[in-house]
Design a protein that fits this description.
Elements lengths: L2 H16 L17 E11 L10 E6 L9 E4 L1 E7 L5 E2 L4 E10 L9 E8 L4 E3 L6 E4 L4 E9 L9 E10 L1
Length: about 170
């Protein structure tokens, strides 16, 4: 297909995206109100070696827009940290991952439909999209977000330590 014949399709696609409650490209930081959702996963006990995908884990189900005022929520940043008992940030050596997905709400036809969105792991504590860009998440009564945090211990054979995970979502 020649480039000229694809141009109308591309313009139509971009206009559909722009009309779908998308934040304006290049919007100044003060023009849009950013919200933050913070989740804390407490007291994940590390008491032995836990290789990748085998450590203690916890998951939380939630919505960023419980009243569903918009069809979509635009995720602009995602960050996770490992904390000690005093709430101080420590090395991420005990982070296997902190993952975000969408899932059908209980009692709905999509209850078992799990759609991964983003995942942070050891060595990558955060993602921030450039100004004007975001990850679009559906905001529907039959869909929830689920965040899963999992601990990791590849090194210490003799350990008995509680760690907390703190995750922050900007939208």
């Amino acid at each position: 297909m020649p480039v000229a014949s694809r141009t109308p399709i591309l313009l139509l696609f971009l206009s559909v995206l722009a009309s779908d409650a998308m934040p304006p490209l290049g919007a100044a930081p003060g023009e849009l109100q950013e919200h933050t959702k913070t989740l804390v996963f407490r007291d994940m006990l590390i008491d032995q070696r836990y290789p990748s995908m085998r450590g203690p884990s916890e998951e939380v189900f939630f919505s960023l827009d419980p009243d569903h005022q918009s069809r979509h929520v635009w995720l602009t940043r995602y960050r996770a940290e490992v904390l000690d008992q005093d709430g101080q940030v420590v090395s991420d050596e005990h982070m296997c991952h902190v993952s975000l997905a969408t899932i059908g709400a209980p009692g709905t036809a999509e209850e078992q439909v799990y759609r991964p969105q983003l995942s942070l792991s050891q060595g990558q504590q955060g993602i921030r999209f450039p100004s004007g860009y975001a990850l679009r998440l559906e905001s529907r009564p039959d869909r929830l977000l689920v965040m899963n945090a999992m601990a990791l211990n590849n090194n210490e054979a003799s350990v008995h330590q509680n760690v907390h995970f703190k995750a922050e979502i900007g939208y």
